[in-house]
Design brief:
- This protein is 68% helix and 1% strand.
- It is built from 18 helices and two strands.
- The chain has helices spanning 19-29, 33-40, 50-72, 74-78, 82-85, 87-90, 92-124, 130-147, 149-177, 191-206, 224-253, 259-267, 271-303, 312-331, 337-366, 389-402, 414-418, 425-441, and strands at 407-408, 411-412.
- It has a two-stranded antiparallel sheet with strand order 1-2.
- A hairpin with a 2-residue loop joins strand 1 (407-408) and strand 2 (411-412).
């Protein structure tokens, strides 16, 4: 039953994935207490009225989802994990730098889900030690990750149905029970807060870009690209907006900063079921984060041992090590979690946007999806080389271009200050990185000129 493929191309004969399966996994991936907390930021941290908060989150998810789902369409065409495909833009060793950034993201979400999942379980069963709950969640996640993508897809899809129904029921329960007068209209509109919440929704989606094709690479190359896009886009946006809407409502109605505790208080007799389901979803769904972190770890390792194709044993050992590392970090990361997570999201957006722009321009505009997949694994990277200096330089420029527009607790850029603290850095990063790479890659002497398909 163990998945046999790691980072190598999936043979066409084994491309049995379906759009329904991809839809299920992306509906379930967002059915987490972490999504509730993210939605609550709009009505707590950014103090928007409920309706405007929900509108801003919806806009952010709809826009960010487009970029994320475009990456999903690459999986069926190439049949390799996303960070292997990045070698086509950055070279074999250059892509390792991007893979390391993505690895931090995967582990960050894994650790975050461990913390919030343990809080959910402790909220409904106070006698359960949060440390014990956290370790138990990691053990469950490791068991699912060990088997591989088929089991991950199954448990996440089942979770999508169960959590989805409970989220709708929770929404109805809170509204029927009676919302305090003025709670939904509390707060105030500001352009700064509205645009910032849009950015929160966008980064939630864009954060999936470095591993979205990991889940679509088992779909057939001839027919999978379009259906992979729509299944991924619909599943991720619908589930994100639904669960974030619950977070918005809890943030507007509940008192105090404990969002999960507020959800429990507001849902009364339903709270036990929803918190237990969220705890289970965090443990089971977390397998997807570690699965992709494992693929990235193996990708980086193969970079320095060209031609090595890691097998099941390498995947299982890596899986065990990463789960242990995540538990150790999570045990020391519980205090001040929400603030740290907000900062993590913002920094993540700045780092990922230039890579996403370069990848999409290269795939859809420069090469029209044509890559020599076998060359990704050749010593020296074949036609892609080991370091694509031009692409790395564009990436660096894209990062630097965002600095004047950044809005962080420890730093606000001069342009952002001048326009009232509105965070436009991610839009600038997309435009500068994508536009500049298009110019650089189309030079006659550029290493990123289009190549014929040989896969």
């Amino acid at each position: 039953m163990l998945e046999q493929h790691t980072i190598g191309p999936v043979p066409e004969s084994e491309r049995t994935g379906t759009a329904r399966g991809v839809l299920g996994i992306w509906l379930g991936i967002n059915m987490l207490p972490l999504t509730v907390i993210t939605g609550a930021l709009a009505t707590t941290l950014f103090a928007l009225p409920f309706a405007l908060a929900l509108l801003a989150l919806a806009i952010g998810n709809l826009v960010g989802g487009v970029f994320m789902a475009l990456h999903a369409s690459q999986g069926p065409k190439l049949g390799v994990p996303q960070m292997i495909q990045a070698r086509g833009q950055f070279g074999t060793k250059g892509a390792a730098l991007v893979a390391l950034v993505a690895w931090v993201m995967f582990m960050g979400f894994y650790i975050s889900n461990l913390v919030v999942g343990a809080q959910s379980l402790h909220g409904v069963l106070p006698a359960v030690d949060p440390v014990v709950a956290l370790i138990a969640a990691a053990v469950v996640s490791m068991g699912v990750t060990t088997v591989g993508l088929k089991l991950i897809k199954l448990v996440i899809t089942v979770g999508a149905v169960v959590i989805g129904l409970l989220v709708v029921a929770s929404f109805a329960w809170i509204l029927v029970s009676g919302v305090p007068e003025g709670a939904l209209s509390a707060g105030h509109f500001s352009v700064t807060a509205f645009v910032s919440v849009i950015a929160v929704g966008a980064v939630w989606q864009i954060a999936y870009a470095p591993y979205v094709s990991d889940y679509s690479r088992y779909m057939p190359s001839a027919s999978g690209a379009r259906s992979a896009f729509w299944a991924t886009y619909a599943g991720s946006v619908i589930s994100s907006v639904l669960v974030m809407a619950l977070g918005c409502l809890v943030g507007a109605v509940a008192t105090g900063d404990d969002v999960i505790g507020g959800l429990a208080a507001l849902t009364g007799g339903l709270s036990t079921a929803i918190l237990l389901a969220f705890a289970a979803a965090s443990a089971l769904g977390n397998a997807g984060n570690v699965y992709c972190a494992v693929l990235n770890t193996l990708t980086v390792a193969e970079t320095f041992k060209p031609g090595w194709r890691p097998g099941v044993r390498a995947r299982l050992i890596t899986c065990g090590v990463l789960h242990v590392v995540g538990v150790v970090v999570a045990l020391g990361a519980s205090d001040g979690f929400i603030t740290s997570f907000t900062n993590f999201l913002t920094v993540l957006l700045y780092i990922l946007v230039p890579w996403s722009a370069i990848n999409l321009v290269d795939y859809f505009v420069i090469r029209d999806g044509h890559y020599d997949v076998a060359a990704f694994f050749k010593p020296g990277g074949g036609p892609y080389g080991t370091w694509n200096v031009s692409a790395l330089a564009v990436y660096a420029v894209g990062l630097a271009a965002q600095i004047p527009f950044m809005v962080l607790p420890m730093y606000v850029g001069p342009v952002a200050t001048a326009i009232g603290g509105i965070d436009l850095a991610w839009l600038v990063g997309l435009a500068v990185s994508g536009g500049l790479f298009l110019l650089v890659a189309r030079r006659p002497d550029a290493t990123a000129t289009p190549l014929p398909a040989t896969d």
